Amino acid sequence: MNKKKYIIGILIAVIVIGIAVAAIIKTPLFKKEKTAEEKLLEKPGKTLLYFSPHQDDEMLTEGIDIAVSIENGYDVHVILCTDGSICNVKEKLNNGKHCKSCNTDHNYIVTTEEFIQSRDSEFIGSCLALGVKRENINIEETRMVDGSETVEGTKEIIKKYLELFGKNCTVCAVFPNDPEVQHRDHNALGLAATELKDEGVIKNLYLFEEPYNLEKVSRGDREEPNIYYASDEIMTKLQKAVDEYHKWDSENGRYAVGYHSAGERMENVLSEKALYYHIYE
Ligand SMILES: [Zn+2]
Ligand SMILES: [Zn+2]
User: Fold this and answer.
1) How much distance in Å is there from the Cα of 26 to the middle of ligand 1?
2) pLDDT mean across residues, the chain
3) CA of 97 to the centre of ligand 2 (A)
């Protein structure tokens, strides 16, 4: 009888100690801090909002992350913040000169409206190629004119989408970098996002650096980005997004604007397969 009590006593002790150890391991003190890559791949919440200054930044700067997030089952929305109307390609299309990219002379009279339309079509095609659902591709109706994006105007756009989808959404935007190098619209987006995070309006924020600016920026106090390398499967989607920017069908208003303006940058993304990211906490 005593022996039986003794065994039961030992068993109870083992169970109690087991529960205690499990509880200690679960405390934050013992929890292993997630790596940057784990944080990138396991974003909080289910809904991700990607803000893009122009038609092409969603591919050049955020494309790998958009494709990976969709692959990982997130509900991905993309929001275009400007009209992309200020671009030297518009002039290139009707200057009658020989175009090296197309190896032909360009004599196309394209109105600003038609030009914006052409860029929007490329943007929509690119988002679809990355895997974004058509209803989740937003050409924001209050978008600003290219080159005049403001911090305040961008904050209003971000707040509008947070109200639509809920405060727990994760916001993804462009990293606010050296303003001497970075396009002012990109800088405005980055500053708007970080200010809203500091104000507690944005709960979760991820920021991406333009790969083509990495060597040019003077970094100052800004931290170096983390790097994530995409799989070949993801890069196949990126290639399809680039193809959208390469589409030429002048009869139907497609003028390969993205490829004329950023063809080399797109080729570099395809060969480097790298995403440059910050987790703004
Ligand atoms: Zn841009
Ligand atoms: Zn051309």
Assistant:
1) 44
2) 93
3) 9
